[in-house]
Specification:
The chain is mainly α. 75% of the residues lie in helices and 0% in strands. It starts with 19 loop residues before the first helix and ends with a helix.
Length: 109
């Protein structure tokens, strides 16, 4: 039995986040969240108050939600730039629109 493997076309290849500064920002946010998680682990090991631990869980969740939102907006901006190829004026408007979108989506969470 012969198996035929198709190579993915450019349209089916999953895009990556190309913006170095955006990647650095996301990684820094994740490292901060990682530090918060270590802090929660320490609090649990030391038998800290459940309310304080719960507050820290809430802070980590918000940090991760914010990071996810930021990553999504960066990805959307990158993909729109690829498809639309805006001029300088359009790029300024796109940046403003994506900032507004990020603000609106952040308010949902």
């Amino acid at each position: 039995m012969t198996t035929i493997r198709k190579t993915p076309s450019a349209a089916t290849v999953a895009p990556v986040l190309d913006d170095r500064s955006a990647r650095a920002d996301l990684l820094n946010r994740l490292k901060r969240a990682e530090g918060q998680l270590r802090g929660i682990q320490r609090m649990i090991e030391e038998g800290d108050d459940c309310l304080k631990i719960g507050q820290q869980f809430s802070a980590v969740r918000k940090a991760l939600d914010s990071t996810y939102l930021r990553m999504t907006v960066c990805f959307m901006t990158q993909e729109l730039q690829t498809v639309v190829q805006p001029d300088a004026a359009q790029q300024a408007r796109l940046d403003e629109m994506m900032g507004d979108l990020q603000t609106l989506l952040a308010r949902l969470g």
